[in-house]
Each structure stands twice: as C-alpha cells, then as structure tokens.
Design goal:
Strand content: 15-25%
Shape: globular
Structural class: alpha/beta
Distance between the termini: 42 Å
Strand order of the largest sheet: 7-6-5-2-1-8-21
Radius of gyration: 22 Å
Helix content: 25-40%
Bound molecules: flavin-adenine dinucleotide
Number of helices: 12
Oligomer: single chain
C-alpha cells in the first residue's frame, strides 16, 4: 500500500500529523479550528466520503423544494486552506501502530500514519431488525438521500396521476415515514407540502389521492421535547394533513406496503426510515471500550487507554458535565462544540495552550412543521407558531458554516413564489443506499449496481 501523503515537507522540520476522520458537524468544526490554529506547526489531514460537510438540520427543506442543496453543503477544501482533504473512507485503524487504512473514491487503498487521531464518523441508521428496511425503505441522512426523496415523491405522484388502477394510485400516492422524532416530523411536514403543491402539476390527482403517514412506536412524538410542546407539534402536524399514528410499531416493510405489529397493513410504495441511529461501524471495529455502541471518552474527549485518540460527536460517549452521570445528547449542537473543544485539546497535547473539559449548556431545539407551524425551546423558553419559526430560522442562519445568503434568498423566494416543482431525475438510487449498521454503513460505492427496481 502506498502512502500518498508525505508527512513532512521536504527539508522541513518534523511535523506531527493530526488525522481527522469524518467531516460532519464534529469533524468539520474540529478541522476548521485546527486549520486556523496549527497550520504552521502540524500536518492536518481530513478524510471524508464526500468533498463537503452537510448541514443536516435543513435537509427537510431540500426535500420540500424550499432550498437549493448547494446552500447547505460546505466545500471542505475551500474552507480548510491548510488541511489536506482526502475524499475516501477509512476502512481500518490500528491504534497501537498509529496507522489508518483509507479507501479512495477510485477504490485504491492507502495507509496513513498519525500522531493524533480525531474520530468523528457519526452514526448510521439502526434497523432494529425490522424485515425489509434495507431492501425497501429509504434513509434520510445525506444530501443525496434528500435529493433522491424529493425526486421520488414527485415521480410517485406522476405514476399515480398516470394510472387508472385505483389500487396502484393509492400505493403511489401514499408515503410513510417511520419515526416520530424531529427528523421524521419535519420530513413528513415538508413532504406533505411538496405533494400538495405538486397537485397543481398532476391534475388527475386531488388532495385525497395523496397520503402522508408517520408511524411512531412510542406513546408520543418528539421524546426530547417538553410534553406540552410535543402535543402542540402533534396537533399542528395533524392539522397540516399528516396522519400521525402513535403506538404503531412496524413489523415489516415490503415493496408496496408496511405491516404493523398489530397486523394492520398500509399500502405505500415509498417508506422512509428515521427511527433511530447507532454509531458508525468503524467504532465497533476498534476494539476499544464502548457504551451503548459509542466510544467512551473522558471530559477532555480523549479515549481511556489511548490519549492520542480523540472521539466526539454522535459516535462518542461524551460525559455531560451539566447533567452528571448522563451522556451528551447526539445533536448537531453538541457535535459542533465538541469539535472546537477537541481542536483546542489536540493543540494542547502538541504543546499549544492548555486542555479544557467539554461542558455545554444546551441552547434549545427547534422543529419546523412548515408555514407558521413550529415549536422551539431557545435558551429554555418554550415557543410555538411564528415566533418559534423565526427563532429556528435565525439559529440556522447563524449556525450554518457557509451559504447563509443562498439559504436566506431561497427561503424568501419560496415565500414569494412558492415551491419549485420539477422532477429533474438527478440522483440515481445507488447514491441513496440506506446507511445502516446491518450493511456495514452503506458507504457510497458508484460501482455498485442498482439493486432495487421498484417504481
Ligand atoms: C435529517 C436530519 C436532521 C437533523 N436535524 C437536527 C437538528 O435540527 N438539530 C440537531 O441538533 N441535530 C440534528 N440532526 C442530528 C445531527 O445531524 C447529528 O447529531 C450530527 O450530525 C452529529 O455530528 P457528527 O459529526 O458526529 O456526525 P455526522 O454529522 O453524521 O458526520 C459524520 C461524518 O463522518 C463520515 N464518515 C463515517 N464513516 C466514515 C469513515 N469510515 N471514513 C471517513 N468518514 C466517515 C460521514 O460520511 C460523515 O460525513 C439531524 C440529523 C438528520 C439526519
């Protein structure tokens, strides 16, 4: 195996290499802080399967046709001028030998050495052993999946509009989202509004021909929200025309229907699985101590037996110092701030500054259910309606690493001119393969043939 990176510049002094794996919220913010801080004193290398960081919290707006996907994709190389960005996937890590195997997009393997390793591979979908998830459900974690879903919704409505078979029309016009967390609710709300707007285009259909259903196994939606706000969100999304079913556990997903544990069957050609996440497979392969699948780290984000290995974000079990005994929640907010703390501590471990513990006071949550329907808890204040909507959008504009103007102008355009309805056929299904623990993370492989052929 060849090493494509020279660790030290010709004629230069020995420079330690910091290898960052994953460029989501944690990895990107860590790399950006290191890029600003250690550019002159360390070799910085970032490995990620795609060349951009995705601001996932706005993926539902991409599905809904409100946002151009470019607005929420931050190009890595342009944002990190002093960091070597490798587009590829880490396939193995040897913490003893300080090496790491990377498979590039051309399929070639390379072996990298490192002095400090920052692990942020995030999480993948948890299928919970439900039959048919990998084969027939769609995931909702990447930009490719969001684009694919937008296309698929419109394509299904085209099929529904073209057929005179009422059963086929029902299947094509029915969309099921599994999971009543913020991701599932926002997706269903946006999908429903996109479908409604599309009815103007597909005139053989009326509003009865389109059905959006959310299936939640638990007794309520938005488990992490205060109960009264969660109830309000449930009420608002139901008024928007989404059928939310509580206590509805899924037994099986088939190509054209979903079967519930109760035995009931819902016809649907499109099912999206948002029912839970588990740390990326890379973590379990390390052979290091984990808690609920997440790599155990101390409050300085270093692993127990390998202080040169840092871990953060969804994949790490980070102690929540504001709630002793608990782990930090798997949220973008935590991941982003852990990224900055990890960068600080990596720098300290190389002799620049003093290490500090990760302590974060939650800034609150926001759930946008389209139109004026939203709930939010900024700094613990409970809001709903327009105020929650404004608070949510203001937060996103502030937190976006790039593309703020593009996002703002897209929102203004959509508010004035409506959603853009056109199935462009851009994304091939193989790029939207569900990333789940059961298929080893489902990394993008352009050479893989398309498996599913369901219309
Ligand atoms: C649709 C959606 C909406 C969300 N909305 C919100 C929200 O509103 N608020 C909120 O707080 N949280 C939200 N979340 C959760 C939030 O996105 C995660 O908590 C956050 O992304 C975790 O950051 P991370 O850096 O740990 O992982 P990620 O952001 O998932 O990044 C991990 C990165 O590592 C890469 N990677 C994985 N394996 C490898 C490997 N072997 N080699 C190289 N790279 C690898 C991945 O491709 C990815 O780029 C949402 C999530 C989704 C999917």
């Amino acid at each position: 195996m060849a090493n494509p990176l020279r660790k030290n510049r010709p004629g230069g002094a020995e420079r330690p290499r910091v290898l960052i794996i994953g460029a989501g919220f944690a990895g990107f913010h860590c790399a950006r802080a290191l890029d600003r801080r250690l550019a002159a004193t360390a070799d910085l290398v970032l490995v990620n399967p795609v060349d951009h960081m995705v601001y996932t919290a706005l993926l539902p707006d991409v599905v809904g046709g409100l946002l151009d996907p470019r607005g929420i994709a931050t190009p890595l190389a342009a944002s990190l001028p002093f960091t070597k960005v490798l587009v590829g996937t880490v396939t193995a890590i040897d913490t003893g030998a300080h090496t790491c195997a990377v498979r590039g997009i051309d399929g070639r393997e390379a072996l990298l050495t490192w002095d400090r390793l920052v692990l942020n591979p995030g999480s993948v979908t948890r299928t919970m052993g439900v039959a048919g998830v990998l084969e027939h459900a769609h995931g909702f974690k990447t930009l490719a999946e969001a684009l694919y879903l937008r296309e698929r919704i419109l394509r299904q409505l085209q099929f529904a509009s073209a057929t005179t078979d009422m059963h086929a029309r029902e299947r094509h016009g029915s969309f099921v989202v599994v999971g009543g967390g913020f991701t599932g609710l926002e997706l269903a709300a946006q999908g429903r509004q996109l479908s409604r707007a599309a009815l103007r285009q597909y005139r053989a259909l009326d509003s009865e021909s389109v059905r959006w259903t959310v299936l939640e196994a638990g007794p309520s939606v938005l488990g992490q929200f205060p109960a009264n706000l969660a109830r309000r969100a449930l009420d608002r999304i139901r008024k928007r025309g989404v059928d939310v079913r509580l206590g509805a556990a899924v037994a099986e997903i088939a190509p054209d229907h979903v079967r519930l544990v109760s035995g009931e069957t819902l016809p649907a050609q499109t099912v999206v699985w948002t029912a839970g996440v588990t740390p990326a497979p890379l973590i379990s392969e390390l052979g290091l101590a984990v808690q609920r699948g997440r790599l155990i780290v101390g409050d300085h984000l270093q692993t127990r037996d390998h202080p040169d290995v840092f871990a953060l974000g969804d994949a790490a079990a980070v102690p929540d110092l504001t709630h002793p005994g608990q782990l930090a929640a798997q949220t973008a907010q935590n991941a982003q701030r852990q990224g900055v703390t990890a960068a600080h501590n990596v720098a300290a471990s190389l002799g620049h500054g003093k290490a500090r513990a990760y302590k974060h006071h939650d800034l609150g949550f926001t759930v946008d259910l389209t139109g004026r329907n939203a709930v939010a808890t900024p700094l613990g204040v409970r809001l709903s309606g327009v105020l929650a909507k404004v608070a949510g959008r203001a937060y996103h504009l502030w937190a976006l690493p790039s593309g703020r103007l593009r996002v703002l102008s897209d929102w203004i355009n959509a508010a004035i001119g409506g959603r853009q309805i056109a199935a462009l056929g851009l994304i091939d299904e193989r790029y939207a393969t569900i990333q789940a623990e059961a298929n080893g993370g489902g990394a993008i492989d352009p050479t893989r043939p398309v498996k599913r052929t369901s219309a």
